[in-house]
Input
Amino acid sequence: MTGAPRSGTTFVGKMLALPYHVAYVDEPFNSLTGVKGMDTWFPYMSHAANEHEQLVRDVIEGRASFKPSLLREETKNPLKQLAREMFVSRENLEHRLDSYNPLKQRFLIKDPLAAFSSEYLHREFDLHTVAVMRHPASMIASYKRLGWRFSLEELKRQKPLMDDHLKGLLDEVDPKKVSHVEEGSYLWLAINGVLEKYAERNKDMLLLRHEDLSRDPLTEFYKMYQRYDLPFTTRVQRRIKEHTSPSNAADPLNNVVHQLKRDSAENIHRWKKILTKKETELIRTITAPLADKYYSAAEW
Output
């Protein structure tokens, strides 16, 4: 399960991992919170450079060791510190427990940082691959709300990635001189442009729009459950309804990063309350070469 950061990968991944036999693996290729040996932001794994092959095998076979999270706050609580020393991180503990749980028969790996590596993972390891695309204004509004930045330098310093996919897009872009809106717009183009290319040449890869899931979640998730041979039980349907119901608030409480229970239909348009008209126009101008294929004028 991949896509650009803040495209709904956590929500979609969690909904697909509702069956009891599915174990959810959270961002193993994240250089800050993921497995040991993964130190590149937005890594580009390909057949030409497979130095990460064993690392990937460890993840999909339940043997991976996650590093201590570089995002967690320091603690003076001796019990918390002891737990960290014993279990390393929440991700590490959950992965180990799931790998020893006989009821867990399938792993669902959710990782937006693996977007550029998704074709390699799909082909080399025969992974079912779902990529989600979200309206560029909605994605960038989420970055603005959270104060997140993703430096384009992380992409430009990966020469194979630039040579194979991003040379024409980012060659003339100076990561140090772009605004947060420009930065997010180019990131949206880079990730979704590559994912579109992957989906076109790998017919088993699924590229879907977050907005379609949000408008009709039961129908769209039913299709995916059928596609990937997952049991669409009454419990699963109830949980999906609970997470997408109009009775939920559309706005995240206390500005939390992941508010999974939302009014999904209303959430589609939240970006209009966050971005200025000037910011929206800039996003639309930069992303138009790809966004116009997926989003009509009415959706702006």
